[in-house]
């Protein structure tokens, strides 16, 4: 398809509205490499949202990312091009579940993955992403934490922090839970020289078969620094497409899985979002006040 007219319209609308587009690494290349002002992992998008001077922030990503941007910019207009762009992790837990967990484990701090609703963040002590989970947990100086809602991220983090007991929740990313160790063995059999990078939302037995595990930004950095001749990114499919566009000499081999929520965001919907100032993300002020603290504590860890 031809994207030229949408791209041109979006670039003009951004200037007119003093808007920026923050795009996650799982957005398609025609968004990622054309209209996006800032691209990155969840942590980078949260950091950049906190610094923004724009009047309008369009979040090309999923709803929890737009909520995080709104928490950090309560007076700005934050738009998401499709309100239905959710996340199986965010869906896996409610604020009431967190209150119950606290009752069961009194005094144990709650570390919450950013892939959650503002209401869940509001019940938490501090947030984390897959890019800073270890640092955030270490910053608490305790030997027991509740880490929710991603069971696999919690288990993969616990494997690197043997002195800390991590109590988990049974949330999973519907994209990463589908990978199996056999997927990696198959790719290695076809390409013995392949370097395999996995996202820590994948099950621990999958991460164990990989050469490196890290957030989407860490994977992109790894490829940029090491320049392997062949690489498999065990994550969402657009990630490979976006990094491959930067390094034509590197061969990117599959498997990959698509995130149906990320794929709801398209160029025509971004254009409509800017034209019609929709869909505006709003958060109950009482919830926002508490949720913001948890996100700001995370950002302060650095
Ligand atoms: P990161 O980009 O922070 O690694 O997160 C991956 C993800 O699944 C976001 O939805
Ligand atoms: Fe959620 Fe997984 Fe999709 Fe990320 S890739 S938005 S964690 S379902």
From TrEMBL:
Metal-binding as UniProt keyword: yes
Details of cofactor binding: Binds 1 [4Fe-4S] cluster per subunit.
GO terms of biological process kind: 'de novo' NAD+ biosynthetic process from L-aspartate
EC number in record: 2.5.1.72
Assigned keywords, A-Z: 4Fe-4S, Cytoplasm, Iron, Iron-sulfur, Metal-binding, Pyridine nucleotide biosynthesis, Transferase
GO CC terms, sorted: cytosol
Subcellular localization, as worded in the UniProt entry: Cytoplasm
Main location: cytoplasm
HAMAP family per UniProt: NadA_type2
Name recorded for this polypeptide: Quinolinate synthase
Source organism per UniProt: Chelativorans petroleitrophicus
Lineage: Bacteria, Pseudomonadati, Pseudomonadota, Alphaproteobacteria, Hyphomicrobiales
Chain's gene name: nadA
């Amino acid at each position: 398809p031809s994207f030229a007219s949408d791209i041109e319209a979006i670039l003009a609308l951004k200037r007119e509205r003093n808007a920026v587009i923050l795009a996650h690494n799982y957005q398609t290349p025609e968004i990622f490499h054309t209209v996006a002002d800032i691209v990155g992992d969840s942590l980078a998008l949260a950091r950049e949202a906190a610094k923004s001077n724009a009047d309008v922030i369009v979040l090309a990503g999923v709803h929890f990312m737009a909520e995080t941007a709104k928490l950090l910019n309560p007076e700005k207009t934050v738009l998401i091009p499709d309100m239905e762009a959710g996340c199986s992790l965010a869906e896996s837990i409610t604020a009431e579940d967190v209150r119950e967990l606290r009752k069961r484990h009194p005094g144990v701090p709650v570390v919450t993955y950013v892939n959650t609703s503002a209401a869940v963040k509001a019940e938490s002590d501090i947030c984390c992403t897959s890019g800073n989970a270890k640092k955030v947990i270490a910053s608490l100086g305790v030997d027991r934490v509740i880490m929710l809602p991603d069971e696999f991220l919690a288990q993969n983090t616990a494997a690197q922090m043997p002195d800390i007991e991590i109590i988990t929740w049974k949330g999973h990313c519907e994209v990463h839970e589908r990978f199996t160790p056999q997927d990696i063995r198959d790719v290695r059999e076809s390409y013995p020289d392949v370097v395999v990078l996995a996202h820590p939302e994948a099950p621990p037995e999958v991460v164990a078969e990989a050469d490196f595990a890290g957030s989407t930004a860490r994977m992109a950095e790894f490829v940029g620094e090491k320049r392997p001749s062949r690489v498999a990114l065990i994550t969402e499919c657009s990630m490979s497409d976006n990094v491959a566009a930067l390094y034509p000499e590197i061969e990117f081999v599959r498997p990959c899985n698509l995130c149906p929520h990320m794929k709801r965001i398209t160029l025509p919907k971004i254009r409509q979002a800017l034209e019609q100032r929709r869909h505006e993300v709003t958060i109950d002020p009482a919830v926002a006040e508490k949720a913001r603290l948890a996100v700001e504590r995370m950002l302060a860890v650095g």
